């Protein structure tokens, strides 16, 4: 090879020509950005990605909102930050106007499983989601069901759609619950990666009672289980048999997360659901089933992949299980009373 390499004499005219060409391209693309309309496509595409990339910051327009005060914390009665600096989302700590601007043009996929008799919950779930879930944003409801003909037609606002995904059922409700991880994992690879920015995975036997918006979105989020928010880690109902892939020793654990509400970017949800599914396959081969099924595996995953946001029990409540404590200013997503034996058979 010529020791002068690329910078050698023979390369110079080519190089000068190329640099001039590149400079012109750069100049014109900047000029286009100054002409209204011309640069918009470029700009919006980079904006579109920035909320998904923790190293990028989305641009927001001029907005008028009350100023926060450093010595006047928005909530003094509850923990609002984990020790790994993930926000814990409570009423009073966020401003939806700012967040809506940061997450504009985001598409959110909501997965929900309506297998066997659980289809009866879909109507109320979808109706209340239209009132409270990600209002003003693009939403695709992915309804997994073995009874596509029974999916109700609920009127949807613009930019929102229901996609029915026909899947098989399983004999035991525990199996139905556990196979959700596998199905979300499979469909994430096949289509969710190409169709939405975030995935929100929720239980169907629930209704929305108040705002659930983009404040929940983050690369990986989990929701505190209403039965254990005040409990010590020793009392969490983690899987305690060391033979199980979901095993968590008594001296470990941050929170007890609910199986009925988690999510994140599609890539992170794909990782989570694939890992949980694989762990369940290993357990099954060893003749084991974790004490709380997919929820046990979710808790194991979130112990070693710390969520980047944690949703307070406002985001998952059961009025039959617990009386509402005073620090819960809102109940956003609550259990619909049901006859377990009747629905699960
Ligand atoms: C919004 O996102 C879509 C892709 O989902 C993109 O094609 C479009 O240019 C974006 N629009 C704006 C205004 O950012
Ligand atoms: C998920 O995908 C794998 C690999 O393609 C397949 O073997 C499996 O049956 C699928 N699972 C479900 C529940 O569809």
Automatic annotation (TrEMBL):
<keyword id="KW-0735">Signal-anchor</keyword>
<keyword id="KW-0472">Membrane</keyword>
<keyword id="KW-0808">Transferase</keyword>
<dbReference type="GO" id="GO:0016740">
    <property type="term" value="F:transferase activity"/>
</dbReference>
<protein>
    <submittedName>
        <fullName>Histo-blood group ABO system transferase 2 isoform X3</fullName>
    </submittedName>
</protein>
<keyword id="KW-0812">Transmembrane</keyword>
<keyword id="KW-0328">Glycosyltransferase</keyword>
<feature type="transmembrane region" description="Helical">
    <location>
        <begin position="12"/>
        <end position="35"/>
    </location>
</feature>
<keyword id="KW-1133">Transmembrane helix</keyword>
<comment type="similarity">
    <text>Belongs to the glycosyltransferase 6 family.</text>
</comment>
<dbReference type="Pfam" id="PF03414">
    <property type="entry name" value="Glyco_transf_6"/>
</dbReference>
<dbReference type="InterPro" id="IPR005076">
    <property type="entry name" value="Glyco_trans_6"/>
</dbReference>
<dbReference type="InterPro" id="IPR029044">
    <property type="entry name" value="Nucleotide-diphossugar_trans"/>
</dbReference>
């Amino acid at each position: 090879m010529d020791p002068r390499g690329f910078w050698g004499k023979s390369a110079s005219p080519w190089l000068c020509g190329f640099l001039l060409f590149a400079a012109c391209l750069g100049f014109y693309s900047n000029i286009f950005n100054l002409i209204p309309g011309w640069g918009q496509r470029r700009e919006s595409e980079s904006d579109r990605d920035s909320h998904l990339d923790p190293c990028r910051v989305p641009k927001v327009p001029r907005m008028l909102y009350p100023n926060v005060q450093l010595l006047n914390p928005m909530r003094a009665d509850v923990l609002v930050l984990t020790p790994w600096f993930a926000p814990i989302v409570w009423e009073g700590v966020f401003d939806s106007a700012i967040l809506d601007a940061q997450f504009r043009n985001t598409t959110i996929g909501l997965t929900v499983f309506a297998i066997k008799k659980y289809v009866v919950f879909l109507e109320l779930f979808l109706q209340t989601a239209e009132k409270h879930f990600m209002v003003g944003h693009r939403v695709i409801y992915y309804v997994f069901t073995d009874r596509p003909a029974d999916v109700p037609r609920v009127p949807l606002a613009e930019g929102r759609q229901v996609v029915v995904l026909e899947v098989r059922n399983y004999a035991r409700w525990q199996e139905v619950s556990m196979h959700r991880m596998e199905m979300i994992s499979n469909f994430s690879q096949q289509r969710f990666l190409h169709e939405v920015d975030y995935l929100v995975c929720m239980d169907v036997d629930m209704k929305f009672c108040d705002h659930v918006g983009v404040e929940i979105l983050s690369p990986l989020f989990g929701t505190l289980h209403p039965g254990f928010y005040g409990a010590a880690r020793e009392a969490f109902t983690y899987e305690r048999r060391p033979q199980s892939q979901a095993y968590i020793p008594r001296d470990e654990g941050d929170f007890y997360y609910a199986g009925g509400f988690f999510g994140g970017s599609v890539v992170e949800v794909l990782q989570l659901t694939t890992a949980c599914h694989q762990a369940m396959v290993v357990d099954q081969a060893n003749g084991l089933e974790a004490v709380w099924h997919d929820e046990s595996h979710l808790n194991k995953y979130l112990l070693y992949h710390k969520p980047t946001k944690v949703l307070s029990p406002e985001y998952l409540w059961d009025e039959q299980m617990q009386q509402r404590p005073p620090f819960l200013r809102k109940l956003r997503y609550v259990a619909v009373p049901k006859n377990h034996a009747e629905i699960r058979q």
